[in-house]
Amino acid sequence: MVTKIVVIGMGYVGIPVAALFADVDGYSVTGLQRRSKRSGWKIDVLNSGKSPFEGVEPGLDELIAKVVKKKTFSVTDDIEVLKDADIILIDVQTPTDSQNMPRYDSLREVSKQIGQRIKKGALVIVESTVAPGTTQNIVQRIIEQESDLKGGKDFDLAFSYERVMPGRLIEYIVNMPRVVGGITTKATKRSVELYSTIVKHEIYTTNTLSAELSKTIENAYRDVNIAFANEMALVCESLGVDIYEIRDLINARHDRHMHIPGAGVGGHCLPKDPWLLRFGLYEYGTWKVEPEIIALSRRINNHMPVHMADLVENALQSRGLSIQDATVVILGVAYLEDSDDTRNTPAAVLAAALQSRGATVRLHDPFVKEWEFGPHEIETDIMKAAKGADCLALVTKHQQYFSLDFDALKEVMRTPALVDGRNVFDTKSAVDKGFEYRCVGKKGVQKV
Prior knowledge:
The chain is α/β, with parallel strands linked by helices. The protein is built from 15 helices and 16 strands. The model has no long low-confidence stretch (mean pLDDT 95).
């Protein structure tokens, strides 16, 4: 008997998990994707047996080609496929708005679509990260209202999150521990049975609320630790000390793990999951507990691209050039190295900060093809991007940038200045090549 699985949302989570399940004997998987101008093209690309991602994703291209050829995986925009689904995974985006409040438009819409079509006995699993309490207070309620079925009796519901990262999508799904929380013991058991077919690591079980909290607290923890590293980088800069040397000295003790500072935090998770956690603590106009460190950490991390703009301006002033007269090339617009993922990329904030100060901004990235944050085009040839420019500002440590030809770049640039947001370059090497060099957290920043 074939188990029919529908995965709603063909993104960085939905695609790899759908392909992995499609490679399991006895499973037939359908990806459900809205055919919009921005993302509808994925349907045709995936159905042709190809991955829509430009970045390096070990094993994903081959897996998609395999399961499409086996005819156990296909993608559609027809929501009627939900009627026959035995298992439904929800993998839609759950962003926050400018006020740091959850935007559940997609989550509510797909919950309604499921409720109008769900069959008795189906299992629904929310994999999208949500504020604590969302699975039962929003998803379950909508499905029940639309279907006249009862969660835990007529259908099963659980929350189980992915710990994916672009560049390691399959590896992290298969080899990371997994947390599953159902609204009933039966829902939890069914979910564990499902994931055990693709997950090689231990699967931990809990209740739905604890599973939701596990994800949001995990990412808030990461964000707070990065914020500490970023603040200490600013401290070291102000004292003329190298934060990377300090970090090495601290981490020489085996049980110390200070994070790495940088140009900013991006991606779909860290910039918004702490806010989802915070939102889950707000009820009836009052805070159960107001987690102050979350808001402070977000403010610090959001400031880092602006600090990059400060470093650019400082480097240009050292060469006698006003930022209003300068052309700055941002190196790397994906939020993560060797990927094409631009979600919440700090490059967007840096570009806006530079433009607000009067600079002309150019973009370079070897993987990203389109820029959704403004009218800029993305250049893939670094020498073309650097021609006549006054400063290179590295945001993303794509592998290509580790072997830049400083001599060739200096020849084509008008002003040889370099701001390093990821500690990719050696200070002495850059300075010896004639570049005005700045780096987040490194000594050598001059006050002009």
